[in-house]
Design a protein that fits this description.
The complex is a heterodimer. By secondary structure, chain A is α+β, with helices and mostly antiparallel strands. Chain A has helices spanning about 20-30, 55-70, 105-115, 145-160; strands at about 5-15, 35-40, 45-55, 70-80, 90-100, 120-130, 130-140, 160-170. Chain A folds into 2 domains: about 5-80, 2-Layer Sandwich (Alpha-Beta Plaits), CATH 3.30.70; about 90-170, ACT domain (Alpha-Beta Plaits), CATH 3.30.70.260. Helices cover about 30% and strands about 40% of the residues of chain A. In chain B, strand 3 and strand 4 (about 115-130) form a beta hairpin. Chain B has one domain (about 10-175): Alpha-Beta Complex (Peptide Deformylase). In chain B, about 15% of the residues lie in helices and about 30% in strands. In chain B, strands 1, 2, 3, 4, 5 and 6 form a 6-stranded antiparallel beta sheet that branches. The chains are: A alpha+beta, B alpha+beta. Bound molecules: zinc ion (ZN).
Chain lengths: ~170, ~180
């Protein structure tokens, strides 16, 4: 282990074969460890966020700059040491929203979650024809009254013409 | 095989109906209980069977999927590869889930949500009761595997819920490449 802080790297661009191999190859050359990462493809657009430890910010920026020249947008940031971690007493919930597409669905629903002190830790939105779907994983402080939050969500969702369900995340420990 | 459904002539003359798609509100509205002996419920049952029969890959259909808010669904998982126990082709009116145990996860699709599939956890052993159309006879179905999943999916429809309301996480909804 080194004392250098972990780095958050984002890689964006139109998808093509080889992006992951090039980025991980470059990081391996620098002796970097790939920690958490998440990649997705949205309508042919490639988006990848990864946490790397080992090399310095300057080394990674310089090494990945050549990739960025071609067709990719690369950013590298230092991950703060004191990044917030959910308290053990917090509970994870799943929020599903679906209905007719219109502006403001995500901001309306997430606004209610934020006002209750909830934190969104994972979010996917999907649009197909007129159907808009949102699934969010949220962490709620145990002080939140779930019935009350459900009523607020239902009212807010109704105002933008969508339906909402909130339920505890199902975790099996095997 | 047709172990449950009464062989009534009224159930053979169904009309093929259009399948309603999300975000139609009828799919998000809980359906009311109905009288299984009413002629209109007999013809609804027949329409569900006729519509399921002409829809490739369709193993079940709830009444609100053809635009009728009533607690009625049809099912036929006979030929599905994941089926273990099954009860042939049947229609249930006012179904009630009596018992549900042993959860497992699988990917589901729905004719009313043709562009997505989703990973959903459901009980793999269930007991469900309900009434048969026409006679109103009460039946209890004890089943497992794919038929258990399918009856819970249909019961959700009658409660105004889609598989989108049951997915296991933010990465559990997938675009559907081809729709059978
Ligand atoms: Zn369905």
């Amino acid at each position: 282990m080194t004392d250098t802080p972990s780095l958050a790297v984002t890689v964006l661009g139109h998808d093509r074969p080889g992006i992951i191999a090039e980025v991980t190859g470059a990081l391996a050359d620098l002796g970097g460890n790939l920690e958490d990462s998440s990649m997705t493809l949205l309508r042919g657009h490639f988006a990848w966020t990864l946490i790397v430890s080992g090399p310095s910010l300057e080394q990674v920026r310089e090494r990945l700059a050549s990739l960025a020249e071609d067709d990719l947008v690369v950013t590298v940031l230092v991950v703060p040491e004191d990044n917030a971690v959910a308290a053990p007493s917090d509970t994870r919930y799943l929020l599903s929203v679906h209905g007719g597409d219109r502006p403001g669905i995500v901001s309306t629903i997430t606004g209610v979650v934020a006002a209750a002190g909830g934190n969104i830790v994972d979010l996917t939105t999907r649009l197909s024809k007129d159907l808009y779907v949102v699934v969010a994983e949220i962490v709620l402080p145990n002080t939140v009254e779930i019935g009350e939050l459900e009523r607020e969500l239902t009212a807010a969702a109704g105002a933008v013409g969508v339906g909402v369900t909130l339920r505890p995340e199902d975790t099996d420990l095997l | 095989m047709n172990s449950l459904l009464p062989d009534l002539p009224e159930l053979h003359n169904g009309r093929v109906r259009d399948v309603v798609r999300a975000p139609d509100r009828v799919l998000s509205t809980p359906c009311p209980e109905v009288d299984p002996t009413e002629p209109s419920i007999m013809s609804l049952a027949a329409d569900l069977l006729a519509t399921m029969a002409v829809s490739p890959g369709c193993v079940g259909l709830a009444a609100n999927q053809i635009g009728v808010s009533a607690r009625v669904f049809c099912l036929d998982v006979t030929t599905h590869p994941k089926t273990h126990t099954h009860h042939g082709r049947f229609v249930l009116v006012n179904p009630v889930l009596v018992e549900a145990t042993r959860k497992d996860r699988a990917r589901e699709g729905c004719m009313s949500v043709p562009d997505f599939t989703g990973d959903v956890r459901r009980a793999s052993r269930v007991v469900m009761s309900g009434l048969l159309p026409g006679t109103g006879e009460e039946v209890t179905i004890t089943t497992d595997a794919f038929e258990a999943r399918a009856v819970q999916h249909e019961l959700d429809h009658l409660d105004g819920l889609l598989f989108l309301d049951r997915v296991v996480g933010a990465h559990a909804i997938h675009p559907r490449q081809t729709y059978l």
